[in-house]
Amino acid sequence: MGSKSDWGVMSSVSATLDKFGIGSENRVISAHRAPKLLTEYCESARNRGIKILICGAGLAAALPGVAAAHTSLPVLGVPLEASQGLGGMDALMAIVQMPPGIPVGTLAIGKPGAINAAMLATAILALGDEQISTALEKFRAEQTQTIADMPPPDQ
Ligand code: RP5
Asked: Is CATH 3.40.50.970 the classification given to domain 4-148?
């Protein structure tokens, strides 16, 4: 994430991955404030065994795009609502409009996007991992059952 101030939302990423037994590391690395650190991190990620990068940032959110420029690993971007910003639309526009050839899978603004970035990463990893695939299918079936079991609202 681009700042420690993003953690309130981005903590949902590792919390969601934990449910599927997927390990993760959480780092604050700003594309604008620590560009060299970001380059080093992204360039070494694959050799350290990292499979997917999930980047959350607010304001002029360059983090996911610059990360994608430095690695061919899948990069998922979560636009965040920063306190001095434009409600997250600023970050959404910055993250979603990548030039062709350098993709960032862009999720929804804020917590729903953070959770779904982890869910999407889980689905990608499930393609090559039976245990994760089974855990994901179980989660989806239970989620569906929760909706089916939901009592109708009082009229
Ligand atoms: C972005 O600027 C960060 O991702 C954060 O959402 C926003 C504000 O950062 P702070 O001023 O709170 O550190 O780079």
From this structure: no
* Ligand 1 atom with least separation from CA of 33: 14
Residue 154: per-residue pLDDT: 86
Atom of ligand 1 nearest to the CA of 58: 6
State whether the beta carbon of 81 lies less than 6 angstroms from ligand 1: no
pLDDT at 151: 92
Domain ranges for the chain, please list them.
4-148
Q: What is the mean pLDDT of each run of 10 residues along the chain (155 residues)?
A: 98 98 98 98 98 98 98 98 95 98 98 98 98 98 95 86
Question: Distance between CA atoms of 38 and 85, rounded to whole angstroms?
Answer: 23
